[in-house]
Specification:
Metallo-beta-lactamase, Chain A, 5-stranded mixed beta sheet, 17% helix, globular
Length: 308
């Protein structure tokens, strides 16, 4: 049964428009060959056109910066496993965004919790307590960048803790999975929560997508959590291959046990995506970063430092 996590969010005040989508889609079959994916470094798509006239300093080596995009405390984890084994457990999730600085452009991955939380302070409803200390814009200042310096945006999926600060980047190119876009803008009242995304320049993609055309940064198609859920692969000169999970996994234990949240749109599709992800991680010898797992995030460099 799909659980409406919207009920766990505030119905009034600063959080009134912050919702998790309930998507309803038929079961689908995961397509694609892991071997071909690894050989091509997730290529095959045309790269997005990236502006080159920015005044920001040029870089010669890809870097990955970690941004603090909020904290989510959960008083009962039951909704995060269809197996029923998380009932009564508590946890604290990190909420992270990432900046990929590539010689051909800058990609912002995920948009975190809404900036309104900074003014309102922590918000509590149901099992969730959410908070935010700094906007993405303020964190970009720490590495001498502004929102206008960002060439591309992509979100792993459209849940409120990954899509909260789009209003800071008007006019930026937005790489969005076509299935996710269709679920966001589906002609219902729920699409009002994505109003800020209408100011972005949409570039729809499907399947795995080689962002810069050189195999170093690839959006990985991993549906099931939502219809167009994705992860991100970044190949770095010194740190090697990094795989960002989006919400394919929320916790290390969820990865180990292949636990699927009750609110995922398609459980079999999620399991297929988990298997695809693990095969890719193995063949590329990747370091996996679970974006909500505090231990994984603690191991990453803090701003203004980066993995390279």
């Amino acid at each position: 049964m799909v659980i409406l996590l919207e009920r766990a969010l505030l119905e009034s005040g600063p959080m009134k428009n912050i919702k998790l989508n309930q998507f309803t889609t038929p079961k689908t079959i995961l397509l694609g060959s892991i071997a071909a994916l690894a050989l091509s470094a997730c290529g095959g798509k045309e790269k997005a056109e990236v502006p080159t006239a920015n005044a920001k300093p040029a870089i010669t080596q890809t870097k990955l910066y970690t941004l603090d995009c909020g904290t989510i405390r959960i008083s009962d984890l039951d909704a995060f496993s269809t197996a029923g084994d998380y009932a009564g457990q508590t946890d604290t999730f990190t909420d992270t965004c990432y900046l990929v600085r590539h010689p051909e452009g800058d990609l912002l991955w995920d948009l975190g919790l809404p900036a309104a939380l900074i003014e309102s302070g922590p918000q509590v409803n149901g099992i969730f307590t959410v908070s935010l200390e700094k906007t993405i814009t303020d964190q970009l200042k720490e590495i001498d960048l502004t929102p206008k310096d960002i060439d591309l945006i992509s979100i792993s999926h459209s849940h409120f803790d990954h899509a909260g600060q789009a209003e800071q980047f008007p006019g930026t190119k937005w790489l969005v999975n076509d299935a996710e876009y269709a679920a966001m803008f589906n002609g219902t009242e729920a699409e009002a929560q994505y109003e800020a995304f209408k100011s972005l320049e949409r570039v729809t993609i499907d399947g795995d997508h080689d962002v810069f055309g050189d195999g170093t940064v690839a959006i990985i198609d991993l549906p099931g959590h939502t219809p167009g859920h994705t992860g991100l692969m970044v190949k770095l000169e010194n740190a090697g291959t990094i795989l960002l999970t989006g919400d394919l996994f929320h916790r290390s234990e969820s990865r180990k046990l292949q636990r699927v949240p009750q609110f995922n749109t398609d459980e079999p599709q999620t399991i297929d995506s988990m298997e695809k992800f693990e095969a890719l991680a193995s063949v590329t010898d990747a370091r996996v970063i679970i974006q909500h797992e505090p231990d994984d995030i603690a191991s990453l460099p803090k701003l203004p430092e980066a993995l390279d």
